[in-house]
User: Which sequence fits this backbone?
């Protein structure tokens, strides 16, 4: 028998091949996933959120793309306020394909006796409507039959409000209409903007006869075009058609849309929501990163003897790192795969639970790019947090095999690892910035998180050192707790880091929420009027004002001219070519309310330039809202072109105004000098503020009388509008809270992992304490003191840091006033205290139950 | 006598701890001839294991010169030491220190794999056959007895045919009979390979089997006794 061949003695390569490293690394994984559960869970959770958000966005986008034609009501639409399309304009549109005309407006529907009334979104349609999709009604054989003659189709909600049913009649404007059916589904509802009231559909002839079509009334005329079946309808073709049509009708002022993006506002909102949620996911992932770092650190510490053994048989530092990197990567793949798999399922779940609330049915179609981004985030975060503890693995000396020394890895990783960490961090920041819009938000989120990690890492070191210097307390349990906090490899640093970061995020989310709630809930009702009156004819204002004052003495009425128009050019540049920041984009798309005024409107302050004299009669002047003017890059002296009633008007900016929007006083982005718009046919917008002490019955009576006397005027009760906002707001809050709870879950995982890190040590310590006579209650007290001290320190700093982050987020990103809510802070801390008690309790229970003999024997 | 494979010159080892500095080795000078066997004995705390660790390059001497196979270990960095150790030195521990997640075969192949040697598993299998564990190559350490684990550890230490074998109390965790079998195996393999063996032991009978017995006391060499022992004589002594 001979010993191995001579090749064994002189190796072919001094460092060994990567294939061997991978093989050894995978072999090492045989010990199972134990110790990696927190690692995998942290990674899976963060990746799941990012993948889910991406998948949901893709699903919605796919839904829009596939259902775009039906949602829009055709291939293309052209819409404008006030002015119906002229014959010349309609001929141009007809050259593109089949055209369908619809008109929508807000008006009051009333019972015939005038006792009940409700705001409704009236829609008048022609015979070719709808060009795409079908309209479903209940109570009549078909939609065309239901709208024939003076027939109307109404939303069941409206009938319920008015106490009417199919077969009854109701009043719209001057006309009595027959309610022939209830509306089940309207294919192009999304294209008609978000509606405030229930829908009523009538024929165009009925609408024309209602007396509601008056010059200046806020009617939106929309022309849907369906091309011939053979015509190309790809994105570029339709875009070219839109541009060409705009060129053929330069003065028309139509807002044109195509089936590829039937509602830019919703698309934009979805995009921003997606960005926001991705950042929440990233925050969870980064908080989870602390858990990843702890898990890797613990894993490496447990493998110290194996590492030392490898070192003793000739493994280089690079090989040791390589062997464990293989394992970390394998675990990352598992965590990321679980996260992606769960994330992909989310759209289906959301669609099943909330499908009816979404503007479009989500379709299970996930773009590989979204999954790749989520996976890449996961991999980068896993490496970012694993590399430091991993890099320290090579600092393990083989001499630990001879001496029972404290078996933990220490020191700093080699320079290559530090450089790799920096590169990965840069890649992560790059990825976050490149996939976020606006980039400022990603920048704030990453900056805030890095600040948190740095602050709490430093705090951990400081607390450990302080604990070593504190004079020994007389209570043995407290002394033990303080000694544990000061122990060189104790829990202190990891608990403070994970708890502090998690708590700071929670405090920040809670305070941002509180500010938002405060903004919407407490400020609005205090300063807002009780009623908005739409479409008050100019010549009826005096009469109406007297009518209100006679019935409710002490009521105040404010009025303003109200026209709709759209911005066409800024400083001579067409708005389509103006590069506006996302938060100012809405001003440029679609039509806006415009007004004119002799004096500075209430709730406004001129900050730059001069207001025009009362008798001004020169070229058109306009006052621009300051913030938006700054975002759009225009200032005093620049020219602005608006299209009103199919006519372009050039005006010069004479001043900028600060506007207190939240007061709900009448105010507009653009207010013109009176001579500019006075001649255009228009109605007035008015507000009524009732004096204190008006009974609900008196208020209801006023509204009823108002409706009866002025049938064309629509009165919107502000409280109802606020309730509407609150419903939407509650949904948004649910989403934000769900997202916040993901961060909380990440924090809880990290905390559990941090406590598990030192569990082995703790068990041994408790066993020794018990053998020398410590009672269980003493050990329990020591642990309670330790956790309470650490949690209190972390909480105090978390309130300060989280508060600062929330302050910056609220004032800089959300642009609201910051409100510090102690209630929100205490609720958050209460949850945290419960979590610490739970995880700490489970850990201590394990420690106290551990049998002593096997431990003492093996050590 | 052939050239020394180990040449220690006035080696000092001082370890610092929170309690202060402790002088572990206080000026040890020692030459070990290539192909010979040497036993280091002495009471606990005399510095014998530390001396072995210095020879293995696992502990860096505070001062003095440590030459192994002509290389001054003091000049080598951590990784260079690891590569040197892998090629030149095989170490056998009292507690075996096998990787628990790897089979006997994989444990023995590990140094070869790390060195990128071809035929790692064939070599490892041959070695395990040689130490009498042919039928148990696929067993994990936990499935092996103490004696079997130490056989695996010896096979691993010898897998790269080192010139120098260092053994720290190789029979310390084994019963008398198994211990004697392990010693027989270790000395037999060493003789066949022509390697140098330095072992640390408390066991005087084991020490007697070496060509030379170095006695340590308080970090210094107290005596250095050279014997004339041959392989058959060793056998006789052990049996």
Assistant:
């Amino acid at each position: 028998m001979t010993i191995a061949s001579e090749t064994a003695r002189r190796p072919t390569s001094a460092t060994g091949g990567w294939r061997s490293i991978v093989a050894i690394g995978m072999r090492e994984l045989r010990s199972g996933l134990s110790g990696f559960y927190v690692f995998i869970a942290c990674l899976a959770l963060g990746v799941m959120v990012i993948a889910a958000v991406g998948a949901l966005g893709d699903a919605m986008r796919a839904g829009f793309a596939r259902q775009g034609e039906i949602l829009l009501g055709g291939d293309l639409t052209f819409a404008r306020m006030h002015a119906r399309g002229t014959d010349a304009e309609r001929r141009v549109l007809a050259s593109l394909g089949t055209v369908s005309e619809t008109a929508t407006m807000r008006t009051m529907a009333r019972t015939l006796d005038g006792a009940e009334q409700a705001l409704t979104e009236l829609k008048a349609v022609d015979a070719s409507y709808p060009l795409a999709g079908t309209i479903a009604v209940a109570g009549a054989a078909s939609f065309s039959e239901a709208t024939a003659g003076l027939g109307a189709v109404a939303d069941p909600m409206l009938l319920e409000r008015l106490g009417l049913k199919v077969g009854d009649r109701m009043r719209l404007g001057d006309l009595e209409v027959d309610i022939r059916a209830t509306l089940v589904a309207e294919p192009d509802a999304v294209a008609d903007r978000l509606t405030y009231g229930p829908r009523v559909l009538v024929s165009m002839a009925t609408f024309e006869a209602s007396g509601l079509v008056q010059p200046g009334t806020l009617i939106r005329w929309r022309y849907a075009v369906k091309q011939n079946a053979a015509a190309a309808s790809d994105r570029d073709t339709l875009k070219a058609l839109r541009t060409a049509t705009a060129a053929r009708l330069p003065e028309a002022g139509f807002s044109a849309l195509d089936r590829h993006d039937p509602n830019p506002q919703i698309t934009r909102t979805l995009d921003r929501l997606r960005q926001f949620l991705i950042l929440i996911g990233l925050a969870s992932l980064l908080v989870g990163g602390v858990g990843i770092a702890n898990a890797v650190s613990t894993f490496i510490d447990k493998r110290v003897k194996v590492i030392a053994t490898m070192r003793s048989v000739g493994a280089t530092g690079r090989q040791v790192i390589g062997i464990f990197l293989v394992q970390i990567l394998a675990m990352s793949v598992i965590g990321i795969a679980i996260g992606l798999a769960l994330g992909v399922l989310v759209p289906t779940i959301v669609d099943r639970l909330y499908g009816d609330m979404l503007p479009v049915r989500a379709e299970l179609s996930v773009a590989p790019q979204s999954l790749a981004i989520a996976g890449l985030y996961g991999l980068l975060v896993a490496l970012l947090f694993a590399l430091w503890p991993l890099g320290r693995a090579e600092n393990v000396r083989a001499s630990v095999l001879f001496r029972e020394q404290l078996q933990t890895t220490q020191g700093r990783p080699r320079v290559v690892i530090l450089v790799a960490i920096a590169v990965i961090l840069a890649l992560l920041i790059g990825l976050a910035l490149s996939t976020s819009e606006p980039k400022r938000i990603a920048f704030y989120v990453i900056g805030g998180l890095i600040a948190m990690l740095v602050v709490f890492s430093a705090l951990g070191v400081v607390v450990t050192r302080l604990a070593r210097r504190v004079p020994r307390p007389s209570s043995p349990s407290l002394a033990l707790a303080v000694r544990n906090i000061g122990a060189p490899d104790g829990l202190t640093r990891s608990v403070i880091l994970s708890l502090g970061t998690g708590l700071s995020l929670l405090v920040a989310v809670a305070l941002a929420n509180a500010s938002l709630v405060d903004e919407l809930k407490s400020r609005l009702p205090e300063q807002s009027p009780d009623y908005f009156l739409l479409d008050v004819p100019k010549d009826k204002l005096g009469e109406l004002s007297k009518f209100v004052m006679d019935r409710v003495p002490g009521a105040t009425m404010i009025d303003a001219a109200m026209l709709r128009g759209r911005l066409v050019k800024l400083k001579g540049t067409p708005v389509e070519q103006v590069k506006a920041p996302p938060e100012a984009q809405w001003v440029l798309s679609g039509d806006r309310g415009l007004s004119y005024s002799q004096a500075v409107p209430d709730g406004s302050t001129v900050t730059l330039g001069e207001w025009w004299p009362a008798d001004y009669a020169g070229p058109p002047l306009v006052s621009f809202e300051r913030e938006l003017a700054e975002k759009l890059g225009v200032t005093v002296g620049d020219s602005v072109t608006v299209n009103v009633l199919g006519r372009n008007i050039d005006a010069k900016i004479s001043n900028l105004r600060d506007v207190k929007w939240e007061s709900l006083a009448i105010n507009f982005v653009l207010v013109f000098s009176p001579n500019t718009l006075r001649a255009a046919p228009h109605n007035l917008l008015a507000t009524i503020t009732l004096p204190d002490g008006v009974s609900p019955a008196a208020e209801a009576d006023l509204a009823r009388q108002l409706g009866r006397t002025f049938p064309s005027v629509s009165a919107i009760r502000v409280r109802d509008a606020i309730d509407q906002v609150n419903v939407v707001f509650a949904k948004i809050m649910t989403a934000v809270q769900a997202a916040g709870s993901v961060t909380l879950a990440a924090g809880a995982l990290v905390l559990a992992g941090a406590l598990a890190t030192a569990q082995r040590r703790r068990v041994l310590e408790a066993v020794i304490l018990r053998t020398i006579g410590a009672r269980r209650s003493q050990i329990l007290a020591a642990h309670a003191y330790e956790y309470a001290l650490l949690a209190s320190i972390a909480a105090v700093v978390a309130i300060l840091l989280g508060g600062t982050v929330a302050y910056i987020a609220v004032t800089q990103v959300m642009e609201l006033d910051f409100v510090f809510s102690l209630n929100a802070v205490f609720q958050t801390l209460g949850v945290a205290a419960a979590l610490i008690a739970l995880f700490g309790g489970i850990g201590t229970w394990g420690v106290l139950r551990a049998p002593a003999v096997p431990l003492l024997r093996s050590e | 006598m052939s050239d020394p494979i180990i040449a220690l010159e006035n080696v000092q080892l001082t370890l610092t701890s929170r309690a202060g500095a402790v002088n572990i080795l206080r000026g040890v000078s020692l030459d070990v001839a290539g192909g010979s066997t040497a036993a280091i004995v002495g009471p606990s705390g005399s510095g014998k294991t530390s001396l072995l660790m210095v020879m293995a390059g696992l502990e860096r001497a505070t001062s003095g010169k440590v030459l192994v196979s002509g290389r001054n270990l003091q000049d080598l960095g951590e990784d260079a030491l690891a590569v040197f150790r892998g090629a030149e030195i095989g170490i056998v521990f009292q507690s075996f220190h096998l990787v628990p997640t790897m089979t006997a075969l994989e444990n023995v192949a590990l140094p070869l794999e790390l060195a990128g040697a071809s035929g790692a598993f064939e070599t490892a299998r041959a070695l395990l056959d040689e130490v009498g564990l042919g039928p148990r190559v696929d067993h994990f350490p936990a499935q092996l007895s103490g004696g079997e684990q130490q056989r695996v550890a010896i096979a691993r230490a010898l897998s790269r045919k080192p010139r120098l074998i260092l053994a720290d109390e190789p029979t310390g965790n084994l019963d008398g009979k198994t211990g004697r079998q392990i010693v027989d195996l270790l000395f037999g393999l060493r003789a066949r390979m022509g390697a140098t063996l330095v072992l640390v032991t408390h066991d005087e009978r084991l020490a007697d089997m070496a060509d030379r017995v170095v006695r340590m006391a308080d970090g210094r060499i107290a005596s250095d006794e050279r014997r004339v022992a041959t392989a058959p004589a060793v056998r006789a002594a052990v049996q």
User: Anything to note?
Assistant: Confidence is low (pLDDT under 50) at residues 1-16 of chain A. The CA atoms of residues 79 and 465 of chain A lie 70 Å apart. The longest helix of chain A spans residues 718-757.
